[in-house]
């Protein structure tokens, strides 16, 4: 874990039903790397067996600690459950340095922020950055009920009148996405983070309204896709390794078992960090990162979830 930071759990506290906040402090007592709004860190758990990316929610420019908010997922593969049930104050973990796949476009005239559930987390730093710049923005926060909504106690005091709009589905208060998109000035950029249905609805509404894709930004935490399938052969051109990828394993897992390192973070086809060039063959694309045109071009693929359409792939690895 030479590329990671060693941190100590300074504090664990409940934020809402099923959500805990973890304060991460450097074990050496020094400063942690600075980060931009929308950044995340990959948390390594259980000796590196589990790795999950979590948005940083702490104050920008605070080098003494990081904070993340983690919801316990019912269908957790181990990451959120490990943090909720096994990690205690004083424990040590390794984390990656901050990365950012959900940055603000400061060239926008107005910023429309739409959060769903735990998708509020990256916006906690975005609103800091936008407020510091005096930028025009509004946050629309959708949640089931107040009991399950993180940061609901601090947002009203943090934002100016008219900047915060709340939608509680249990009480029947719902966001009219199409109307909201239609009411935006032409220089508005939209940012959405939440469950896949919310992300898809916002992206589709913006596209239907004729928005350029450069004005549409989204981050998704989960991609419910099966990375298994028919067995095939993968040739790693640079390293001269030929792999037999089993039906019950992902291509990325087979590559890692062969001792070949591939950059990766989410392992769910969302972040794009494992994007790999295809030299021969066709990929069965299952990611949510590449556009439809990029998938059709068959130039690159995400080995964490995507597979081979035929029997053989040659990759630039």
- Helical content stands at 10-25%
**What Rg is obtained from the alpha carbons, in whole angstroms?**
20 Å
Query: Which spans of ≥5 residues are poorly predicted at pLDDT below 50?
Result: none
Whole-number total of structural domains = 3
Note the total helix count.
Answer: 7
Description:
There is one protein chain. This protein is of the alpha/beta class and 317 residues long. The chain folds into three domains: 4-96, Beta Barrel (Elongation Factor Tu (Ef-tu), domain 3), CATH 2.40.30.10; 110-219, Rossmann fold (3-Layer(aba) Sandwich), CATH 3.40.50.80; 232-315, Beta-grasp domain (Ubiquitin-like (UB roll)). Helices cover 17% and strands 31% of the residues. It has seven helices and 18 strands. It has helices at 79-85, 123-133, 155-158, 177-182, 196-208, 251-257, 292-297; strands at residues 4-16, 19-26, 40-45, 50-55, 66-71, 92-96, 110-116, 137-143, 164-168, 188-193, 216-219, 232-236, 241-245, 276-280, 283-284, 300-301, 307-308, 312-315. The strands form four sheets. The protein has a six-stranded antiparallel sheet, covered by helices on one side. It has a five-stranded parallel sheet with strand order 9-8-7-10-11, sandwiched between helices. Strands 13-12-18-14-16 form a five-stranded mixed sheet. A hairpin with a 4-residue loop joins strand 3 and strand 4 (50-55). The longest helix is centred in the middle third of the chain and has 13 residues, at 196-208. The two termini are 21 Å apart. The mean pLDDT is 93.
């Amino acid at each position: 874990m030479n590329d990671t930071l060693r941190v100590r759990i300074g504090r664990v506290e409940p934020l809402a039903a099923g959500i805990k906040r973890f304060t991460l402090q450097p074990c050496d007592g020094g400063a942690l790397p600075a980060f931009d709004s929308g950044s995340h860190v990959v948390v390594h758990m259980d000796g590196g067996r589990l790795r999950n990316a979590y948005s940083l929610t702490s104050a920008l420019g605070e080098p003494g600690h990081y904070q993340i908010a983690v919801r316990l997922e019912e269908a957790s593969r181990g990451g959120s459950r490990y943090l909720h049930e096994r990690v205690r104050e004083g424990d040590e973990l390794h984390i990656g340095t901050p990365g950012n796949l959900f940055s603000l476009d400061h060239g926008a005239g107005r910023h429309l922020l739409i959060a769903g559930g735990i998708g509020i987390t990256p916006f906690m730093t975005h609103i800091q950055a936008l407020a510091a710049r005096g930028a025009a923005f509004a946050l629309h926060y959708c949640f089931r009920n107040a009991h399950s909504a993180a940061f609901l106690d601090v947002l009203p005091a943090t934002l100016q009148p008219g900047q915060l709009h709340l939608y509680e589905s249990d009480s029947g208060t719902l966001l009219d996405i199409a109307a909201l998109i239609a009411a935006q000035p032409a220089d508005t950029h939209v940012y959405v983070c939440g469950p896949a249905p919310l992300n898809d609805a916002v992206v589709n509404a913006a596209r239907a309204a004729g928005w350029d894709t450069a004005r549409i930004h989204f981050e998704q935490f989960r991609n419910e896709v099966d990375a298994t399938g028919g067995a095939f052969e993968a040739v790693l051109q640079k390293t001269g390794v030929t792999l037999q990828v089993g039906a019950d394993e992902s291509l990325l897992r087979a590559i890692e078992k062969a001792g070949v390192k591939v950059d990766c973070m989410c392992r769910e086809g969302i972040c794009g960090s494992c994007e790999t060039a295809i030299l021969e063959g066709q990929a069965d694309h299952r990611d949510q990162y590449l556009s439809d045109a990029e998938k059709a071009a068959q130039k690159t693929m995400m080995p964490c979830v995507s597979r081979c359409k035929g029997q053989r792939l040659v990759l630039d690895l």
